[in-house]
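Following up on my earlier thread - several people asked me to post the actual chain instead of describing it. Fair enough. Here it is, all 70 residues.
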Amino acid sequence: MRGSVLLVGDDPGIGKSTLLTQTAATLSRKGHNLIYVSDEEAVTQICLCAQRFDTKNTEVKLETPYLKIP
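Reply from S.P.:
Thanks for posting it. Predicted structure:
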């Protein structure tokens, strides 16, 4: 839903980041604006996950406690 916020939580290692990274890339390719906020993962870890999908032509903004979007 446009303008919504989604919080996903569960046990470690079940695929939350993989699912959300793939979903973000798909929605970005369809023209949706997204921001992926993580307080547990470093940007490099998120980028490594994103490399497994076709994310070359997507624009997904990332924010972690280590990197703030201006």
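The helical segments are 16-29, 43-50. That should answer part of your original question.
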